[in-house]
Amino acid sequence: MKESIRIGAAFAGLVIGAGFASGQEILQFFTSFGYWGIVGSLVATALFAFVGANLTRLGSRMHSVSHKSAIYKICGRPLGVFVDVVITFFLFGVAVVMFSGAGALFKEQFGIPAAAGSAFLVIAAVLTVLLNVQKVISLISAVTPFLIVLVLILAGYSILTADLSMSEIVRLAGEQDRAAPNWLLSGALYVSFNIACSASMLVVMGGTEKNPKVAAMGGAIGGTILGLLILLLNLAMLAKVDVAGGASMPTLALAGEISPVLSYIMAIVLLGMIYNTAVGMLYSFTARVSEPGTGRFKATVITVGIAGFCLSFIGFVSLVGTLYPITGYLGFTLMLAVFVQWFRSFGRRSRPGAILTKG
């Protein structure tokens, strides 16, 4: 059970990036649909647990040290190449969203121009990747537990002090930008783009566990943790949609309602999450197109950083509302392949004589 919890916590930490922490993802994918968004968060919980369990189980069975073999196993070679390209594209896209998110954070919390905030993060991320400062990354990764505590505080405060009527909540929620036409598709899209981003690490995490059942349980635990956090943050923003709605960083706005000090603490935690995600995505993307440690790798890191900075001017809210759904639609390919793989495996297990012939 201890190993399952370890894998589950790692899975949750992988997905809880800056977009989640800022609340912008939850606002567009769930809160914007009012009370139906609560149902959508339950759908997302089930999908996260199911897909997470199957990817970690597969990683354990294949003793995966890289996602490629597992992706090709699930999708087959032609489709696997497509999914691989989608994952690579998304790595760069998320880095751009993080650069833009830093700009939004600096502007909203500190009154510093967004361009300066984005430039600060780009320089910090590029230097970290070039210098391979692993200790710094590990230190910043430690902010994830603090984020979970803050989410619990925000949810508790918002729900207990809610003063909006049901009709007002529904009206204000309906005025927010939506990531998809309906709540069911939106919940599925949210899982899809997150799985597209985390699939590579999920199968590798599964590969570290010899027992496929233990690995699968870890994936299921991680998915359930994510679902509960989505639900809590969604309830918090529904209860205070008049405060969270329209803000680039909804969780920052909610924290400011409680205390200016908590708002600054939240800003620091968010900046840590943004930095950590940006470094991870920048390194992963660059390592996919050039060999780490070479002169070409260093040049590519700088080029990608500059390109990401330029694209960050599209805006944090617009990027979340455009890039994530597009990647989510593409990521459905991987999710569908996981379902097909599961049905095939289930069919083999349920055939008469399967147990007798297994050995």
TrEMBL record:
The keyword Signal does not apply. The keyword S-adenosyl-L-methionine does not apply. Keywords: Membrane, Transmembrane, Transmembrane helix. InterPro entries: YkvI-like. The chain crosses the membrane at residues 33-58, 79-106, 112-132, 139-160, 180-204, 216-241, 261-285, 297-320, 326-343. This is Uncharacterized membrane protein YkvI.
